[in-house]
Amino acid sequence: MTQERARWGSRVGLILAMAGNAVGLGNFLRFPVQATQNGGGTFMIPYFIAFLLLGIPLMWIEWGVGRHGGLRGHGSVPGMFQTLWKHPVAKYMGVAGLFMPMVVLIYYCYIESWTLAWTWFSITGATRGLDEPTMRAFLHSYQDLGNHSVHGFWTPFIFYFITITVNFAVVMKGLSGGIEKLAKIGMPILFFFAAVLVVRVLTLHPQTVNGGEISGPLNGLNFMYTPDWAKLADAKVWLAAAGQIFFTLSVGMGSLQAYASYLRKDDDLTLSGIATAATNETAEVVLGGSLAIPAVVAFFGVTGAVAIAKGGAYDLGFVAMPLVFNKLPGGTIITAAAGIMWFGLLFFAGITSSVSMATPTTSFLEENFGFTRKKAGFTVASVAVALGLLHILFYTGGFLSEWDYWAGTFGLVVLAMMETVLFVWVLGPSPWQWRKVWSADNKMWNELHDGAAWRIPGFYRFVMTYITPLFLLTLMTWWTYKEAYPTLMMDGIDPAEHATRWWSRGVMLVLLAGLMLLTRIAWSRRRARGEDL
Amino acid sequence: MNTGALIFMLCAWAVVLSILVWSFRRLLKSDPKHEQLPPPGSIP
Residue A119 is inside which H or E element, if any? Predict the structure, then answer.
C-alpha cells in the first residue's frame, strides 16, 4: 500500500515512547532480584559491560533496521528483513518480529491487568491488614480460577478486559494522538511515583525485625550492592547480566523496530538511541534498585527478603510490597497512597510497553491488507482477547510460563541474532572483509549516521561487526544447552502440568503458522500489484 | 552500609545518570530540521 506513513510529532515524544517501550515491569521487579542473586555490586560490572557491548549496539541496530524498512514502506519486521536481504526466506525469518510481540502482548496484558486490579484493591483497602499467609492466599485466589476463597470467578476477567480496552483505545488513536500522548503522560507519572516511593523507602527508620535483627533500607542497599568478587569469575553471572540488559531494553522483540519505522530519513537515531537506553537504565538502576529490595529488607530483614525473592518477581511485587505498605507509619491513607503509587507505576510501565507490542501486527495489517488503523487494532485486539482468555483459564497449569520462555526469553535472542546478521553483515560488509568495516562505504555505518546529531565512536564499527554477534551467539548457545533443551523436555516440571504446557505450545505454533500464512498472502498480493520485491 | 557496597552503588548511579544528562543535553542542543520554525514571513 502506498499511503503516506504516520510520523512522530516531536523528538521528546519519540524518546518517551521508545523509553516507555523499554521500561517495563522487569525494571522494578526482575532487576533487583537478578542483582541480588548474582554477586550484588560485582553484578554491575558485567551488567555495564553488556550494556556497552550488547545493549547500546542492539538499540542502534533496531532503530536502524526500523528506519531502513520504514523509509521503504514497511512498519514490521518481515518487510524490513526483505529490504535488507532480497531472498524469499527473509520475510519468513521476519515473521519472528510479528510473532514475538504478539505472543508477549497477550500474556503481558494479563500480568498488566493484575497491576490495575491491585491499584483498585489499594484504593478499596482490600489488602489492608493482611498478614503474609493471607496476602499470598489473596494473590493465589486471583491467579487460580478454581479457588474462590477471596476473589470471585469473574474478577480477573473484568480487569483483563479493562486493560485490553485501554491498550487498544490508545493503539487505535494512532501514533501521535495515541501512543505518543500516552508516553508523554505515562512516563512522567511513572518517574514521579517511583521517585516519591524511593524517597519514602530510603527515609524509613531502622527497626527490630525477625526476633532481634535491626534492619533498615540501607541494609537492603547493602545486601544488594555488597560485592562478591568470587562471582565475577562465574560465567553464569556474566550471562545473567547480559540477559538482564537484553530484557530491560526490550531488544529482539520487533517493537522498537516498529516505532523506528516512523522516523524520517533526516531524524537522528544515534543520540536518541542512547537517550532512550539511558532513560531505561535510570528507571532500572537508580529507581528500580532502590525500591523493592530496600523496602522488603527494612521490614522483613535480609533473611525474610531472601525467602520472598526465592518465590519470584510476582511474590515480591504482589505479596511483599503490599505487606510493606501495611506496615508503613502514617495509617491507612499512607498505606493506600503507597499502594496506588506502586501498582500505578507498574501499570504505566506495563501499558507503555504493551502498546508498543501491539504496533507491529497492527502496522502489518494496515500496510499489507489495506485495513484502517481502527480495523487493524480491532482485529489484533480480538485475537489477543481470545488467546488471553486461555492464560486466565490455565495460568496455574503453566500455560503462561511456556509462552514467556519460548517467545519472551529464548525467541528474543534468536530475532536479535537474525537482525544483527542482516543489518551489520548483509547491509554492511561481511565480517571477513575487515578493511571494509573501517571504510567510508560501510553502508551499515552510513545508514546509522543519516541525520545523526552525534557521531558514534569508531570502535563501535568493530564492536557491532564482531563483538555483539559473538556475545549473542554465546548467549544463544548457552541458553540452548542449559535451558532450552531441559525446558523443551519439561525437566523438573510437575507431570500434572505437562498436558496444559503441550497444549500451550500447540496454540503458539498455530499462531506462528497463521502469521506465516498471512505473510505469504501479503507478498502474493504485493507481487500481483507489481511491486518491486 | 559498608564502603564497598556504597562505592558500587554510587558508581552505578553515576554511570547511568551521566549518560542520561549528557545525551539529553546534546539532544536539546541539536535542532532537527523538520522541528525548526519556518523563517518569519514565509507563511502567508
Answer: helix A96-124
Could you report the per-residue pLDDT of A207-251, keeping only the tens digit for each?
888 777 888 899 999 988 888 888 888 888 888 888 899 889 999
Q: Where do the H-state alpha helices sit in A313-433?
A: 313-315, 321-327, 332-369, 373-394, 399-405, 411-420
Per the listing, cell 488513536 goes with: A173
| Cell (9 digits) for A528 | 500481483
Please name the residues in contact with A450: beta carbons below 8 A apart, sequence gap of 6 or more.
A67, A265, A266
**Is the CB of B14 inside 8 Å of chain A's CB atoms?**
no
AA letter at A64: G
What separation in angstroms does the CA of A72 have from each of A11, A83, A84, A424, A441?
Answer: 21, 8, 11, 18, 21
HSE value, Cβ hemisphere, 13 Å, CA-based, for A396: 11
Number of H helices, E strands in chain B: 1, 0
The candidate with the shortest Cα–Cα distance to A287, out of A220, A192, A219, is A192
Helix (H) or strand (E) holding A208: strand A207-209
- In sequence order, what are the residues at sequence separation of 6 or more whose Cβ sits closer than 8 angstroms to the Cβ of residue A319? A132, A135, A136, A139, A308, A311
Q: Residues 190 to 229 of A: which have CB under 8 A from any B CB?
A: 218-219, 221-222, 224-227
CB of A54 closer than 8 Å to CB of A252: no
Nearest-CB residue to B20 (from A44, A226, A282)? A282
pLDDT, tens only, A420-473: 999 999 999 999 998 999 999 999 999 999 999 999 999 999 999 999 999 999
Nearest Cα to Cα of residue A362 among A341, A382, A332, A388? A382
Could you identify the residue written with the cell 501498582?
A: A343
* Overall average pLDDT of the A319-346 stretch: 94
What DSSP character marks residue A209?
A: E
User: How far, CA to CA in Å, does A304 sit from each of A18, A75, A133, A202, A270?
Assistant: 36, 47, 14, 18, 44
Say yes or no for a CB contact (<8 Å) between B16 and A274: no
A463 DSSP 8-state letter = I
CA distance A430 to chain B (A): 31
How distant is the Cα of B29 from the closest Cα of chain A, in angstroms? 9
